[in-house]
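User: We ran a pulldown and think these components assemble together. Before we commit to crystallization trials, I'd like a predicted model of the whole complex to look at. Sequences follow.
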Amino acid sequence: MTAPLTLYGDPSARSSLARGETLLKVSDVSLSFGGVKAITKVSFDIRKGEIRAIIGPNGAGKTSMLNVINGFYHPQQGEISYRGAARARMKPYQAASQGIARTFQNVALFKGMSALDNIMVGRTLKMKRGLFWQMLRKGPAMDEEVAHRRVVEDIIDFLQIEAIRKTPVGKLPYGLQKRVELGRALAMEPELLLLDEPMAGMNLEEKEDMCRYILDLNSQFGVTIALIEHDIGVVMDLSDRVVVLEYGHKIADGVPDEVKADPRVIDAYLGVAH
Amino acid sequence: MFYREAGQFKDNYAADRAVFPILQDRIGLGVILLAAFLVVPLLGNAFFLNSIMTPFLIMALGAIGLNILVGYTGLLSLGTGAFMGVGAYAAYKLTTSFPQVNVLIWVMCSGFFAAAVGAVFGLPSLRIKGFYLAVATLAAQFFLQWSFVRVGWLYNHDPSGAIQIPARTLFGLPITGPHATPLTQYLVVLSIVVFMTLIASNIVHGRIGRSWMAVRDMDIAAQLMGIRLLPTKLLAFAVSSFFCGVAGALMVFFWLGAAEPVVFDINLSFKILFMVIIGGLGSLIGCFLGAALIHVLPIVIRMLPLGGDAAMVEHLTFLLVGALIIFFLIVEPHGLAQLWRLLKQKLRVWPFPY
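Assistant: Here's a predicted model for the assembly, 628 residues in total across the polymer chains.
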């Protein structure tokens, strides 16, 4: 597979952080909804260029953690710093403009639009022409449209969804919808990509394909990836480091082999003998 | 020649993103435009132009405005009639205050007033959706209609309480007022509607249209793509109201000639909304099909030799139109535009089954 040429074409758009430096740091974050504590004093970091897995049993607070990172939820306590700067309370679109993209656990595509248009929406932040040129749809507006279409076509090539680019996404099978959603997130050329269960409900081949895309993204473009996944085999094979949550608390953090051997993790997944 | 896309290869992205990528579609559109600009004026009589074609085009323009809001952005509005009224009253005030400026300029400018008013009444859309938003836009409907009655300045304190459109000319040809012929009025309306439909088509096929549809389909994901909900929704309200406002101005200036506030009541809002729903949400062609069904069909049925007295014909018309609306909605809940799409899909492989 040849590398897309236009995606991540402009190196100046990327942050100056070197691979291995801390990209995102979560310190002592607590989040509660009324009396329900979703996350309690969780701290971890995501380093530039790594694949970081967040695992844990159902209801452990993994998705809430992602929602905190991209600004849907605002934690009551704790601090998040991104690219070395502490982050103020922010809105999701601000997170998007800082280079944080995300896919959802249950596919959140724009159902009425084609796969191509869905991915084009991912380019919204990079398109600048205003209402006047949009009304004419000629000259600069069309040039811009075509330039971004070229990037989107590279993404479509990368994800091997050429055949379905004009199909309304509502009509696509689930595995392909997940792939289009990944494409839409990629179109933002994110620095940090949050994947919420990218392989849920997929068969073995689809999972293998998805793993390959994630690894390619990480190695070819240096995208930092934080992923939530229940398939432990996949998590252990893919990720550089794993953080384990249970009932909103962090119970383990480290390289896959450490985490696998941690007795608290084994207890959390298999239960404790009483 | 068959309706086929076989052999029509696109070798650049601009051609691929064209609104009508298939040659036969473009030919069809050209034929329709040619008929509208040449055949209809040559063959149509005054009644046909003034009672069928002109209002049909104006209603279609209003439906395009509402469709931008309801069909493309997913925001339900019942204030269309009032926004059309804003356009009509704005154009009236402008042309009576500054008669030396051409009336067409004021008709287009009236859209900006409607856009501003629409954006203000669109503010609740950030917090509420669906039927609740529809009820909130009812406030616009009632408040604005009340203003048209109570604020005398809007109708120049005319004792009748109505706005009377003064005579205005274009290149020396009367286009409004009693001396304007239905033909010139039809051509003016046709030109404006074609121009604005093109603009609407360009907007909805570009970045802005995609943001609207993204907000409609999944607003949470849209925010994550960097789309800010409030500006996007307000822009939809403003653009939508612009189209409605121009439609309202055209309605009074080139069709009715005079209007009381009651013209812009909630019935007009409903009428336009039904056109959008029956025509097809999120489709520009649907707006024209919907306007044809709701506005033109009753007139055509009334002209059919059904027999009976006038009241009987009137009742029969209601009956038939109602039955047809139900029929079309059962056949295709997504509107006439979807039927049209399915028909084209079938035509593509005709005479083979697949």
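The radius of gyration of chain A is 19 Å. That may be worth checking against your pulldown data before setting up trials.

User: Thanks, that helps.
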